[in-house]
Design a protein that fits this description.
The protein is of the alpha/beta class. Helices cover about 40% and strands about 15% of the residues. The strands form four sheets. It has a seven-stranded mixed β-sheet, sandwiched between helices. Helix 8 links the parallel strand 7 and strand 8.
Length: about 450
């Protein structure tokens, strides 16, 4: 009997026996990319933690977008046209706002018709690129630790992830994110004839690393040599600290023609639930991605596109991004100060709103009552659960952002998010001082 026939017989037999819980087999693609596994977000969900636990795990804000941006959303909702379909490319007001805002940093004139595409969040934009360009078995190079959505988005579209870890050098008294380095010989060995794409996330989630110009130039040389499509995930471009330089990958010599840059209104304006993002790239990338995007969502949220446009239009005159950066630096410093008081090492974040804390010294009882989803996972899973329940501050275990082969690299770290208001971070810092009781 054929495999299909066997499946039909199995499900028919189940139906005859009265079990109708699995009549229709789901697609095999869900077995890859960890799509069916209980993910880290559901394990460390607020519903599973004490009600008074301070959530520094998930990267969403506990404060509102700027009022002038939400006022623009209200105005759009009260208008006629923004309550209906937008063009699949995005509303023209937003595309013009993107053009005017980003032309300087891209060092080129942008065409709103062929080089800009509005998407339903950065994630959906990335997914559409994978849909547009990946053939079955095409390989996608991903630096570890990686943003967890990359993996299923690649595998759902027939791609094969190839993992290249960033190597943490944590021997320094005060490690910083520049200590997470790329072994370029290892990267070269990872590129096979099946390689189609490489993903570069700078500033990086979860490390907080801002890739240097030298690093990006070396990656660019490999992309040119092996004809790779480059996805430059730069959604944290407005959060670069301490005078570090954010280099747009697409501005490097020869890279515009092979690079799609991914950006986000949610990160820019503290509006992660709006699901508005955009892609910037050459027509050769944007056109096929538009074709895929149109069939996936058709168009993105119309009134919130208008609000995002207002945000970009007014940001410069209001000094918004400069002020926001100062506010995030204050938030970052409150959390780092708490770790300094504990004498714990961390990777000093150069960008984004995450910090990796070295939790290798946290000593928890071996017989602690960990829940089943945490059992059998890396040591960081247990440490994060222990800290959440005993200290009252949640974080995310970093081994989740690695493949199984490399996950031990992440087991010494927990990711804490500082995209929270100052008072929340101060309270979290005070609670974290109790960790001193459990340090060895």
């Amino acid at each position: 009997m054929s495999s299909l026939g066997g499946n039909l017989a199995h499900f028919s037999k189940g139906a005859l026996n009265g079990d109708r819980s699995n009549l229709i087999p789901f697609s095999s693609r869900l077995r890859g990319g960890r799509a069916l596994a209980q993910d880290v977000w559901s394990i460390y969900n607020a519903a599973n933690l004490p009600a008074d636990c301070i959530n520094l795990g998930q990267g969403y804000m506990n404060f509102s977008p700027p009022k002038w941006v939400t006022d623009a959303a209200d105005e759009a909702l009260r208008s006629l046209l923004p309550n209906h379909y937008s063009h699949p490319k995005g509303r023209i007001r937003l595309r013009n706002a993107i053009k005017n805002f980003y032309e300087k940093s891209f060092n080129r004139v942008l065409d709103v018709e062929t080089e800009i595409l509005v998407t339903s969040g950065a994630n959906q934009g990335q997914y559409s690129v994978f849909t547009a360009f990946l053939e079955q078995g095409d390989e996608v190079i991903m630096f570890e630790p990686f943003f967890d959505q990359y993996l299923p988005s690649v595998t759902f579209n027939g791609g094969t992830p190839v993992y290249v870890p960033l190597h943490p050098q944590t021997d320094a008294v005060t490690p910083n994110n520049s200590n997470w380095t790329i072994d370029f010989d290892e990267l070269r060995r990872a590129i096979t004839p099946k390689a189609k794409m490489i993903i570069i996330n700078t500033p990086h989630n979860p490390v907080g690393k801002v890739f240097t110009r030298e690093e990006l130039e070396k990656i660019a040389a490999l992309a040119e040599e092996f004809n790779l499509l480059v996805m430059a995930d730069e959604v944290y471009d407005c959060l670069v600290f301490d005078g570090k330089e954010h280099v747009r990958f697409a501005t490097l010599p020869g890279m515009w023609d092979r690079t799609v840059t991914v950006l986000s209104a949610g990160k820019a304006f503290a509006a992660t639930g709006w699901r508005v993002g955009w892609l910037i790239g050459p027509p050769s990338i944007i056109f096929p991605t538009l074709a895929a995007c149109t069939r996936i969502v058709f168009c993105s949220n119309s009134p919130l596109q208008e609000a995002a446009a207002a945000g970009l239009e007014q940001a410069a005159e209001r000094g918004f991004f400069e002020n926001q950066l100062k506010e995030y630096q204050e938030r970052r410093n409150i959390l780092l100060s708490a770790f300094d008081k504990l004498g714990m090492k961390y990777s000093h974040p150069e960008g984004s709103y995450f910090v990796l804390l070295d939790i290798s010294r946290v000593n928890f009882p071996e017989d602690y009552p960990f829940p089943e989803p945490v059992q059998g996972r890396g040591r960081d899973f247990k440490a994060c659960w222990f800290i959440a329940l005993e200290i009252g501050v949640s974080s995310i275990p970093v081994s989740e952002f690695y493949c199984e082969e490399h996950c031990t690299i992440g087991e010494n770290f927990a990711r804490f998010a500082f995209c929270k208001d100052v008072e929340t971070l101060r309270q979290a810092g005070e609670r974290l001082q109790r960790l001193a009781e459990y340090l060895v």
